[in-house]
């Protein structure tokens, strides 16, 4: 049986040793531009990448293993509609 992997978007702030993970239900293009905009305003340099995992928990476990000294800050805030 082939297990389908979900796509997660990850942003890492190496200066503050923190990271965010957004799941497959997130608009990746909007997320990239919003993160870039906020990072520029605050002078933060983010490293962004996508990863595949079977679930949000599996993605978080893998990231926490890889980024063991970093804090998980949750998901990037959802797009708000006015």
Strand runs, count: 4
SSE-based structural type: alpha+beta
Shape: flat
- Main sheet specs: 4 strands, mixed
Q: Estimate the strand proportion.
A: 25-35%
C-alpha Rg, in Å? 13 Å
Distance between the termini: 44 Å
Overall pLDDT score: 84
**SS element count, helices:** 2
Task: Give the helix proportion (percent range).
Answer: 25-40%
**SSE string, helix = H, strand = E?**
EEHEHE
Number of domains: 1
What attributes characterize this protein structure?
82 residues, alpha+beta, four-stranded mixed beta sheet, 2 helices
Tell me the layout of helices and strands.
Layout lengths: L5 E8 L4 E5 L5 H15 L3 E8 L2 H11 L4 E2 L10
Parallel strand pairs: 2-4
Antiparallel strand pairs: 1-2, 1-3
Short précis:
32% of the residues lie in helices and 28% in strands. The chain is built from 2 helices and 4 strands.
């Amino acid at each position: 049986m082939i297990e389908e992997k979900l796509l997660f978007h990850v942003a890492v702030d190496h200066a503050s040793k923190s990271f965010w993970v957004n799941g497959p239900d997130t608009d990746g293009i909007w997320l990239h531009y919003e993160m870039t905009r906020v990072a520029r305003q605050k002078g933060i340099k983010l490293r962004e990448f996508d990863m595949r995992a079977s679930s949000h928990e599996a993605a978080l476990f893998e990231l926490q293993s890889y980024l063991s000294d970093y804090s998980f800050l949750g998901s990037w805030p959802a797009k708000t509609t006015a």
